[in-house]
Automatic annotation (TrEMBL), chain A:
Residues 31-123 form the Cytochrome c domain. PROSITE patterns: CYTC. Residues 1-30 form the signal peptide. This is Cytochrome C. One of its GO terms (molecular function) is heme binding. The keyword Nuclease does not apply. Keywords: Heme, Iron, Membrane, Metal-binding, Signal, Transmembrane, Transmembrane helix. PANTHER family: CYTOCHROME C7-LIKE DOMAIN-CONTAINING PROTEIN, LIPOPROTEIN CYTOCHROME C. It comes from Sphingobacterium puteale. InterPro entries: Cyt_c-like_dom, Cyt_c-like_dom_sf, Cyt_c7-like, Multihaem_cyt_sf.
Automatic annotation (TrEMBL), chain B:
Gene3D superfamilies: Cytochrome c-like domain (1.10.760.10). The keyword Metal-binding applies. This is Cytochrome c. Keywords: Heme, Iron, Metal-binding. GO terms for molecular function: electron transfer activity; heme binding; metal ion binding. It comes from the Bacteria. Residues 127-147 have a biased composition (Basic and acidic residues).
Length: 420, 216
């Protein structure tokens, strides 16, 4: 008996210790994965993703094909591994056009191991989230309700149709009996009423006068408003070929206006960015998490315009320009220069373009009429701390002193003064 | 009888006119005052230039665009050629050979800072720590609802104290003139080329300011 109890006791101990060990191992593993994820996000994501090729290869399943020892060496210093003549390392280096992976000499073995643990963990297809399953079950319930509801609606509809049919039949009977009488009464009465009213209206001169006056006034006000708004595109919000949101890019992402519209610094035109500027970010950003892993259809339009293949990450030779619709269109007889306003005067973009950082779709905020320009020029102070005013003041002083001033000295030899 | 009716109609008419005016006022004050059309236009041809604007279609060119890229082998006015290819060896060579032609002074540094703020800080952060707004968690609420936006992978910090490695060897804080210029010109990893956005002189001003950040 004693032997049996001792055997049972030892068995229980073994089971409990092994359970504890297992628990410890799993929690350790979980910690590794968490730590690995942290390191991965701070050091690896600029070149790698789990599911797709970015600059470097997709890492899904990689830990299964290479030994941990080799991976540690490669991650710590891939160039040293290649230099040592490791066949596998040289092969990968050649395959990726000799692009060099950053060395991470500052990472410890344990840290690299945890990164590998994270990649292993992320490579495994996760079973569906329990909360999502719950939602699916709820959806099923909902669809059951919907089906029952539909049946009820159909039954109700049939009943209503039958009842209505009966009512219609009885009404038809009644109408058939009374039709002649109704026809005889109704029509002349209606006609008579209208004629009576018209006659009375025409007889009352005051009322006619008043109505005419009202009509003239309405037409005048409407006409006046319409005339003043001819060619004024205030509030114009055309549909653009790509649903580009300034709210996301300028508002939430806080990208400076001139990152894309650099022309506002240098020239007359604020310039629409060429699509290579979009690709500075969108070679990486595809918004695929909102489209079930597919590239956002709007971002895909940039790729099509540039003939960029996101799979192979190469450009084709058949690019097509994106045909944006021009919103602000100053007539050709008026000259406007962005750099003069933005660089010299330091005017904020929003002064003329409105709360552009909140616009999901851009519209013309200002009327761009001559009155609008003149009103602003009347109240804006000049910034006199630049060379133009230095030269101007110098010239005035020379004139005061009675010195010789030629046209050439005040810019009369500049090409653009004659050839514009 | 007729007079009675007229008095009634007068009231009705006045009421109708008032209602109509009120209705027009209400309708015109509703909405966000934006429209899909340009509205009434007179002599539209005065808005369309005779000369071609850079962003206009142009049948005179094979690709239908007015804005043409310069022909191969030519340089725009004010541009100097950067004779280094987009390879690791050439990057290292540029790092050894190319020096900033501009003198370090307060004016150039100030301009460099302004350019860095516009063209770089959205990823590299205002202080070059690799913590620009694009690398942080952020969400937008618009007509499609509220959603999280994708983060851009953060670039390594320039600061000496952060001891961040460059992917092409050495510390970010040790990058030389030529290496930084090469990176602006060609881009690297997730960073695209910024050559079309910055003139050579502006690139050198940015390089000058990056050296300031490396001292931190």
């Amino acid at each position: 008996m004693r032997t049996i109890s001792s055997v049972l006791g030892s068995l229980a101990r073994v089971v409990s210790t092994s359970l504890m060990l297992l628990f410890a191992v799993t929690t350790l593993h979980a910690q590794d994965v968490k730590e690995g994820e942290k390191i991965f996000k701070s050091k690896c994501t600029s070149c790698h993703a789990i599911d797709r090729k970015v600059v470097g290869p997709a890492l899904k399943g990689v830990p299964d094909t290479k030994s941990e020892e080799w991976l540690i060496k490669w991650i710590r210093n891939s160039q040293a591994l290649i230099a040592s003549g490791d066949a596998e390392a040289v092969k990968i280096f050649e395959e990726y056009n000799k692009s060099v992976m950053t060395s991470f000499t500052d990472l410890s073995d344990d840290q690299i191991k945890s990164v590998i643990a994270f990649i292993k963990d992320a490579s495994v297809e996760k079973p569906k989230d329990p909360t999502k399953d719950g939602a699916a079950a709820k959806d099923d319930n909902a669809s059951m309700f919907m089906i029952l509801g539909l049946i009820a609606v159909v039954v109700l509809a049939v009943v209503v149709i039958v009842v209505l049919n009966r009512v219609i039949r009885t009404l038809e009977n009644v109408i058939a009996k009374n039709q002649e009488a109704i026809a005889a009464q109704q029509e002349p009465e209606d006609n008579q009423r209208f004629v009576k009213f018209a006659k009375a209206f025409v007889k009352n001169k005051k009322l006619v006068g008043f109505t005419v006056l009202m009509l003239v006034a309405l037409l005048a006000v409407g006409g006046w408003k319409t005339m003043w708004n001819v060619g004024v595109h205030e509030g114009y919000k055309p549909v653009q070929p790509i649903k580009f949101s300034h709210q996301i890019h300028a508002g939430v992402n806080k990208i400076e206006c001139q990152y894309c519209h650099g022309g506002a610094f240098k020239s007359k035109n604020a310039s629409i960015p060429s699509a290579n500027v979009c690709m500075n970010c969108h070679n990486t950003i595809t918004a695929s998490e909102h489209y079930d892993g597919e590239i956002s259809p709007e971002i895909a339009k940039i790729y099509r315009a540039l003939d960029w293949n996101p799979e192979t990450r190469t450009y084709g030779n058949n690019p097509k320009p994106i045909q944006w619709v021009r919103i602000h269109n100053l007539p050709d007889f008026a000259y406007f220069n962005h750099s003069q306003h933005v660089v010299v005067a330091g005017v904020e973009c929003q002064t003329c373009h409105g709360p552009i950082q909140n616009m999901e779709e851009v519209y013309q905020y200002s009327p761009l009429t001559m009155k609008w320009c003149v009103d602003c020029h009347k109240k804006t102070d000049i910034k006199s701390d630049n060379k133009y005013y230095e030269d101007l003041i110098k010239a005035h002083e020379r004139i005061k002193k009675g010195e010789k001033m030629t046209a050439a000295m005040i810019g009369g030899l500049e090409c653009g003064k004659c050839h514009y | 009888m007729i007079e009675n009716m007229l008095a009634m109609n007068k009231k009705n008419l006045l009421g109708t006119v008032c209602a109509a005016v009120a209705l027009t006022a209400l309708v015109s004050s509703c909405g966000d005052k934006t429209t899909r059309s340009t509205g009434l236009e007179f002599s539209r041809n005065m808005y369309d230039p005779l000369a071609f604007n850079p962003d206009q279609p142009n049948a005179n060119f094979a690709d239908g665009k007015t804005a043409q890229t310069p022909p191969k082998g030519t340089d725009p006015v004010g541009f100097t050629r950067f004779e280094y290819a987009n390879t690791l060896e050439e990057y290292e060579r540029a790092g050894r050979e190319v020096k900033n032609p501009l003198v370090v002074n307060a004016e150039n540094l100030e301009k460099g800072k302004a350019l860095f703020t516009t063209y770089c800080s959205v990823c590299h952060g205002p202080e070059g720590k690799g913590d620009g707004p694009l690398t942080k968690d952020r969400s937008v609420t618009d007509s499609r609802g509220t959603r999280q936006l994708e983060n851009f992978p953060p670039p390594p910090s320039y600061h000496r104290t952060d001891k961040a490695n460059s992917s092409r060897g050495g510390f970010m804080a040790d990058l030389t003139d030529g290496k930084i210029y090469h990176t602006i010109y060609y881009g690297h990893n997730s960073m695209g080329s910024h050559a079309s956005q910055l003139s050579p002189e502006e690139r050198w001003k940015v390089v000058m300011y990056v050296h300031e950040l490396q001292k931190k």
